[in-house]
Fold:
Amino acid sequence: MTRTRLLIVALFGLVLAACAGPTVESLRDPVPEPLLSRSTVPGYSHIRYWGDNGDGFTDAMLEEISAQQKAAGLSPTVRNFLAVSGGGSNGAFGAGLLSGWTKAGTRPEFTVVTGVSTGSLIAPFAYLGPPYDELLTEAYTAISGEDVFRRKPLIRVIGSASAADNTPLRNLVARYVTDQMVADIARENARGRKLLVGTTNLDAGRPVVWDIGAIASSGVPERKTLIQDILVASSSIPGVFPPVKIKVVADGRTFDEMHVDGGTSNQAFMFPSNFSVKAQDARLNRSGIKRTLFVIRNGKVTPQYTMVKPRLAAIVGRSISTLITTQGVGDLYRMYANAQRDRILFKSIWVPESFTMEETEPFDPVFMKALYQLGLEMGRNGIPWATQPP
Structure:
């Protein structure tokens, strides 16, 4: 896998970095452990919560969302959720699937959309619906590796935070996350719809869920920049791309947090396991709501046979790709179990075994266009949703 080639470069960089001294980019002021749960981004309130703890969903917040949905005229009995997984260039599959789903005329409006890694880049387009399909198509069929990363010379990797420069990725995100997109997200957030993106707080070693709609609706002048930073962080493969530093305050002091790829914690997510929609309905005295969870897994879910050479690079690369696949399947099972508990209809889709093309380079445009076309046809012809994990 070409994504793992980048990870291998990062591994060798880490080995060399162990012999190097501190650099300017390594200097930071991390949040002390006792203050982790009290740190906030200056100027904002209630824009994030721990992804492994449902306590972030307060009754007051849920009641406010319910009131917004009612005022906006959303159906009181139908709720559709969408979770878009990580997968790097395999995100072209999800992009094609959503566009084809639109053409089939059966794509619903989603009450909640979540995304991690490449899924975080797809999520805003999916949340804003068919009017953004053309831009979503462009983002996954008109780019190459040069639009995502720039390799560093080995000498620059030593002592560095990453093996690649993420400036191209930042520019790509900035191209699409415009003032207009932020305004459109704020409009939909006011209707009680939620756009959530996952990152991983490296110091805490925990998933963080960011409420992008709340950020867009905040009125803070730097809100567009923060959204861009979060999307870049969620897509930042550790070791390959540098972590994104986010300034926070706690107990009157300023610190910085380092956030990386949301896929480090979860390949896909909807709600924390200790948050029960069923229990929420009981608290708010609601009944008769039909909920469906759609999960787009940007990748395959079965082991792929590969003859591994007895060399470090081959062994590490194969191990990492196996870990990613296994974690993705595990996330599907976790989400399925939670859906069963809460009486949510579960539907998932992944790249079929019949697709055998391989990338010749990271973010190979030929590969991405072919995978996009596959997703497009599947969406247009009727998505063969699986109602159970693989």
